Fold Ion-translocating oxidoreductase complex subunit G.
Amino acid sequence: MLGQSISRNSLLLGVFAVITTLLIAGTYLLTRDRIAAAQRQAEEKALLEIVPDERHDNNMLDDTLAIPPGELGLKQPRSAYIARRGRQAAAVILPVTAPDGYSGAIDLIVGVNRDGTVAGVRVLNHRETPGLGDKVDLNKSDWVLGFDGRSLDDPSVERWAVKKDGGAFDQFTGATITPRAVVTATRGALEYARTRHGELFADGPDTATQPAPADSGAH
């Protein structure tokens, strides 16, 4: 009797596990497209905050360049997004990780215009202290807007630092490590864009002159 009870319970548990797995798989299949669409919409919103529609006529999410791990502080491969008017790249949005935030790595995107000036900076993910280091988030303060229009010539490379370190950028009261990390990462993105300018700002394909596909249908 005991053996039969154990076998029956084991069978029921097995059936329950199979049903649960099928339900989870079914839910994933039903929602993955909606989740992917929502993620794409969120990404596009962040990009458009830096390079608005009137500055480009392409879809930046579909015009990308792979950035391998090890560059720009990245641990995983990411994509740079290109904003174009016609064939010409007007700006590029680079994924950057500042590894030296107060509470860990800070993920951000840095927009760089063709002339080497900053189009915009946005922090995407951080674990900085609420009320102090979290002021790097535009939802908490407008501090990141201080990068707009700056370049490696304004200020000079040596002054791309917080004021406490003799630089040109404000730090936060009671918090220096976080803004220092973001300033350094933004300067690194500008230096990367300058070094890779030819690759990042290369002209796109001339779609207007692409040959039409051959008509293989019977007449």
Observations:
- The radius of gyration is 24 Å.
- The chain has two domains: 1-50, 52-200.
- The first helix runs from residue 2 to 50.
